[in-house]
Every structure is written in C-alpha cells, then in structure tokens.
Amino acid sequence: MTCTTRLPKPVTDVWDWQMAGLCRGQNSAVFFHPDNERGYARAAREEKAKAICGNCPVLAQCRSHALEAQEPYGVWGGMGEDERRQIINAARRRLRARSSGHSSERYSSSTSRS
Ligand code: SF4
Fold first, then answer.
1. Domain around 55
2. Is 52 inside a domain boundary?
3. Residue 4 within any structural domain of the chain
4. What is the DSSP letter of 105?
C-alpha cells in the first residue's frame, strides 16, 4: 500500500514549483523506467532525464520534495532512484545515530549532484 503521510499538504502554494518544471509536457517515460529496464538502456534514459533536470529552474525544490516524500520511482531533481535511496538510507542511519546520542542533520546534500 502506498504511504502518503510523507507527501506535502494539498495546498497549491506547496506544489506550484511543478508548474515551472522543464519535464512538464514531456514524455514521462524519460523520467520513469518501464518494467524490467536494466543496464545501458536504463542508464541512457536516466542520463537523458538528468540532462533536462540540469537546466530546470526548480531543480532544488524538486529534489527537496523527492527526498522529503521519499519518492521511490523516477528521476526527480536530477537524481535517480538509487541516488535518492543512498541519501535517504544515510539520513536514516544518522537519525538512528542521533537517537543513540550522536548528532547530524536530516538530508545532507553532500552526496547530491546536479
Ligand atoms: S528537476 Fe527534473 S524532474 Fe524536477 S521538475 Fe525539473 S525537469 Fe522535472
């Protein structure tokens, strides 16, 4: 079942950045993989999507949303699924460490790329 608790509230101001995304009106198949896509085909499709993201005026908002919402699929904010998963998992490890007495911030951008 889809978890929607991490999604932003359904308020227009929270979602307005999406209106300026360069992916708007583009074929979503560039940003989301088909079933069983692997290897070179997947890498080539993701690079094409990331090239679009690289010129997008709302890249930062998009990336922030994808990390906060823990979007499991697609290229968002110039990041693929594996890159987001690494950042989210690292944030979880930091939170666990913090709860056991160590401190850190939530989503570090030190491992992000544009
Ligand atoms: S950063 Fe990429 S996925 Fe996000 S709105 Fe822009 S073009 Fe779309």
1. 23-99
2. yes
3. no
4. -
Distance (Å, whole) CA 21 – CA 30: 14
Task: Extract the annotated binding site for [4Fe-4S] cluster.
Answer: 23, 53, 56, 62
Contact 89, 108 (CB under 8 A): no
Q: What is the pLDDT of residues 78-97, one digit of tens each?
A: 999 999 999 999 999 999 99
Q: How far is the CA of 15 from the centre of ligand 1 (A)?
A: 13
Task: Read off the pLDDT of each residue in 33-56 and give the average, rounded to a whole number.
Answer: 96
- In short, whether 7's Cβ falls inside 6 Å of ligand 1 is no
- With beta carbons less than 8 A apart as the criterion, state whether 19 and 43 touch: no
Q: Is residue 68 part of a domain?
A: yes
* Count of domains forming the chain: 1
Asked whether residue 91 is assigned to any structural domain, the reply reads yes
**21 touches ligand 1 (CB under 6 Å):** yes
C-alpha–C-alpha distance, residues 26 and 29, integer Å: 9
Ligand 1 proximity of 22 Cβ (cutoff 6 Å): yes
pLDDT tens string 20-38: 999 999 999 999 999 999 9
